[in-house]
Here is the input.
Amino acid sequence: MKGHLRERSPGHWAIVLEVRDPQTGQRKRKWHSFKGTKRGAQVECARLISEMQKGAYLEPSKTTLAEYLDKWLTHIQPRVSPRTMERYRELATKNIVPALGGVKLTKLQPIQISSAYAQALAAGRRDGKGGLSPRTVVHCHRLLRQALEQAVKWQILARNPAAAADPPKYERPQLATYDIEQMAHLLNAVRGSRMFIPVMLAGLCGLRRGEIAALRWRHADLNVSQLSIVQSAEETKAGVRYKPPKSGKGRTVAMSGTVATELRAHRLAQAEELLSVGVRLSDDTLVVAQADGSPLLPSSITREWWALLSKTGLPRIRFHDLRHAHATHLLASGVHPKIASERLGHSKVGITLDLYSHVLPGMQEEAASRVDAALQGALQKLHAKW
Here is the structure.
């Protein structure tokens, strides 16, 4: 297998690959265009030869979108988490490939992509019962755009057709949470059940479901009332794996006196329960676990939540919404958004401000009233001197 360059014009190169047909033995040439320096063209030529030797080569003129996505997913796999990879493959195989997979990659046009989105919204469900949600179609668009952007970098495409296709508008639903009174009612209703600690950690500390399932006693310093959130449990088809939190870095969450007291009691009760089955509690023991100390699937927390919620008489919200409730309580109590953001583990304070903007108008009114009160007090003192 060989390759050489031909300069068509200054800065424009033809990469000519000479390959032997495995069936006939005849030599064939495959041509690729490259724009850039000679050194860059040489590097690209070497990359194409390497892909051929590995069996990962794609011939641009014949490759379909389905074939390209399969290669791209293989390329992206080492760079994303297993759960993300599962979601990518699901979106590609169930939604994108059935609609556009047979189209040749170099012939794919924005209008075809836009038409596929419209069709998916109207009748995209695989069971034939209507269309996909705008949110799902938006996820498909993001995946397709990311995949085709890589095709541009690989110089398979001159431009990204998905960048010119408009996804459907998706309005984030308003967050449903509990107020302080409802939160107190919930804690009282679930006390004594195995969901009490998960509910408390989500509703009073703002932990995510995966963070709760990965929390170990070595991460809970009951002497200084602090939790170290350094791992999150991710559930995949292959089982549960532990990874860094969503933001990519750990954080410290201060516990209230109520939370610290309840965790001390829980530790004692858990130690007794484990001893009854011949297991000794250690710092490596999961705070929220099964009766024998084995890991709890994150999805099982959700299942138990739905089963328990129906008995409380409270409005139906997701378990994750308890975290939103905690954030709302923080901001409504006057906690600075930056502190709330750090407590929740958001990568940027802008995420906190965006998610909980419905709380901010009341905070702004209170802030304006405080400034006005301070100003009036200063004016009164000034007038008194006159």
Q: What stands out?
A: The beta strands are 2-9, 12-20, 27-35, 220-221, 226-229, 232-236, 239-243, 251-254. DSSP finds 14 helices and eight strands in the chain. The mean pLDDT is 88.
